[in-house]
UniProtKB/TrEMBL annotation:
Gene3D superfamilies: 3.40.50.2300. The modification 4-aspartylphosphate is found at residue 49. Keywords: Phosphoprotein. Pfam families: Response_reg (PF00072). It comes from Phenylobacterium conjunctum. Residues 1-118 form the Response regulatory domain. This is Response regulator. PROSITE patterns: RESPONSE_REGULATORY. The lineage of its organism: Bacteria, Pseudomonadati, Pseudomonadota, Alphaproteobacteria, Caulobacterales. InterPro entries: CheY-like_superfamily, Sig_transdc_resp-reg_receiver, ST_Response_Regulator.
Length: 161
């Protein structure tokens, strides 16, 4: 599913997806329309713009992940944006976005991110204040135990050498 309030952006993404054989692609012009559509139709991946109105991409993902009536809280989300500031990326990541793609988009960039979503999905986690894909990109194979931060106030198991 493509979610973007700019029709030309949706058309470009649609052409890229069709070029690789994806023919059943749904469109929505904002997050509210996308949520409504998802309540009646199953999709495999959502590609959404960050800056939309009235419901932007970050709010859309927050509702998708956390609303009691969410149609699919674990749906993979690729956020596409021309607003790549550290703050906005952090907000999107903390809302539960799986992957990012910066504008201007290329076919190669779209396909690489889709391949990551499909071939290397990150597990979903739930904490007191977050639900979404694990924000850690790399797993340390030497680590044993439930805690990763030095500030965790639990007995830590030593790393094996």
């Amino acid at each position: 599913m493509l979610v973007d309030d700019i029709r030309n952006s949706r058309v470009l993404l649609m052409e890229i997806l069709r070029a690789v054989g994806l023919n059943q692609v749904f469109e929505a012009s904002d997050g509210a329309e996308a949520l409504q559509f998802l309540r009646g139709q199953m999709v495999d991946i959502v590609m959404t713009d960050l800056a939309m109105s009235p419901l932007d991409g970050i709010d859309f993902v927050r509702l998708l992940r956390n609303a009691p009536d969410s149609p699919n809280p674990m749906l993979p989300v690729l956020m596409i944006t021309g607003h790549l500031t550290v703050r906005r990326i952090g907000e999107a990541r903390d809302a539960g976005v799986n992957e990012f793609l910066a504008k201007p988009i290329t076919a190669r960039g779209v396909l690489e991110r889709l391949q990551l979503l499909i071939d290397q999905p990150r597990p979903f986690i739930r904490t007191m204040d977050y639900f979404g894909p694990d924000r850690r990109r790399r797993q340390d194979p030497r680590y044993v135990g439930p805690w990763r931060r030095a500030t965790d106030v639990v007995a830590r198991q030593p790393l094996s050498s």
